[in-house]
Amino acid sequence: MAQKRNFKDSIRRMFLLHAFVPIFLLFILFLIFTVVNARFMLIHQTKEAGRTIRSSLGEVYRSYSEEVNRMAELPVVIEYTDTRRGSPRVYEEFYNFNNRQQVKSIMHILNKNGEILASSANLSPESSENALKAIVFRMSRTGQPLLAESNHIRFSHDRYTVYTFAREIRKDGRILGYLTYQLYEEDFQKLIFVQNNEIAIVTDQHQTIIATTNNIVRGLLNKLTLEKKNGNIVINNGKYYGSETSIPQAQWRIYTLNAIQLMNYTYLSLVVFFAIASVLLLFLIQVLARTVSSRHTRAVDKLIYAVRQLQAGNMQSYVHIDSGDEFETLANQYNTMLSRLNELLARNEELSDLRRVAEVKHLQSQFHPHFIFNVLETLRYAIVVDNKLAQDIVLILSRLLRYSISTEGSTVMLKDDLNYVADYLKLQQMRFKERLSYTMNVNEEAIEALVPRLMLQVVIENSIKYGYRQKERLQLSVCGYVAGPDLTIEVKDDGGGMSEERLREVRGIILDPDNKSPHIGLNNLHRRLVLMYGERYGIRIDSVPGEGTAVLINIPFMRGGADV
């Protein structure tokens, strides 16, 4: 006998052959890590540069905002503007402040007409004097006590200022003049040059550039022009990642940009390398996988196919494997299991059929014919006082008994069961006289339906039995109709009804498959319908205290034939 091959050894060899797969996965992971890390670093450096610049410029704005207010309210400044005396003290205050600042400035004190009274600039060209007069005129016209705005003004030695802080100088409620601080552009530029960032831009709320490290972003009228495309910023055909932040109190916006072209070259070279390596590895893996699958997975495929057939309901999905290894043993065990399963299913189905038939017959036999005793008592008196009535009672009772003990089938047409109910109610009406009335309203389609024999008896009995406990007169109605695939029959009475607590108790008895209470009528009917048609069918009861009770019977609609 040939020695069986050990499948464990086969798996080990297959694992060795597929050692290329983890290498390939490592390549992919390394590529993803490199790309993600490069992108993350670019984003982090750009945003960090923006935060650094925001912190520095925020301190600049705060310092000058406080200083211009402080300086304009100093007595020496007010005295100088009013009398032209005390200029050394004014300059001393200015230089003490200015020497501590990262962004230096020029100070001017002007009279109400915009004429320069004092200036820290050695020489101001005519254009700067005109710009200062325009600022004074604008503040005077609008009544602004404080002004902070971007403007590009040329001073001596080709030095430019880019931002102005201006404040009224008042004495006794009247305007004496104006104090201005104008911040140098070159100091702004030095402050926004930060490490790991290529381009930095500072603008006011109108997108006017205050300072930038690269003039390629300047547009017409010194406006910032940034073109966005696919989430990136495009400048002169170069793509940049951009970050934006702001200094709300200054209404300054700060943009930091870093080129992504170098990062794209890195991506491209990595992608090319890994694409070539991946193609080679994929080709090798496909060849190896084809070889391994043809040699080692034939038995697995057969087992999987058999299991899927079994899941689909094919109980004859036996599998035959002659591989000489552990899979042959597994297939034999599977076949043995399937044979035992088929045997158990056959036995279970037979037992289920026997149990269902026995339970249905048992439930059918439990209907209480207690009304017969009441009818016999009525018959005893009718024989004495009304022979015609006695004959009618005997005829109707004989029809009822003949129908109830008939063994011609467990289902009948609804019209036959309604005839039985009508006879039953006639007997009860002979007993209760005008205290009992009833109506039947069943449409023609429902009349032809097949229903379980004596289905309505227990419901009618309960309505009469409990309806008279609280009322002298009782009205019964039987309605039937077809709704979609189902037949619905509703029995209503106008008796005393039930309290909510009693209704919950009765519903519990109806739904309890192991009911041990003496009230078994509705429970038996519900169990009978569930056994015959399934869990979604049965009866439902509703009741309102003082108004009556309604029992709803729901079963599948099946049309009866002429031979029923």
TrEMBL record:
CDD domains: HAMP
UniProt keyword annotation of DNA repair present: no
Cell compartments where the protein resides: Cell membrane
Chain segments annotated as transmembrane: 265-289
Pfam families found in the cross-reference section: HAMP (PF00672), HATPase_c (PF02518), His_kinase (PF06580)
Gene Ontology molecular function: ATP binding; phosphorelay sensor kinase activity
GO CC terms in record: plasma membrane
SUPFAM superfamilies cross-referenced by the UniProt entry: ATPase domain of HSP90 chaperone/DNA topoisomerase II/histidine kinase, HAMP domain-like
Keywords from the UniProt entry: ATP-binding, Cell membrane, Coiled coil, Kinase, Membrane, Nucleotide-binding, Phosphoprotein, Transferase, Transmembrane, Transmembrane helix, Two-component regulatory system
Keyword Cell membrane: yes
Domain of life: Bacteria
Coiled-coil residue spans: 334-361
Domain HAMP: 294-346
Alphabetized Gene3D superfamilies for the sequence: 6.10.340.10, Histidine kinase-like ATPase, C-terminal domain (3.30.565.10)
Record's bilayer topology term: Multi-pass membrane protein
Name recorded for this polypeptide: Sensor histidine kinase
Organism lineage: Bacteria, Bacillati, Bacillota, Bacilli, Bacillales
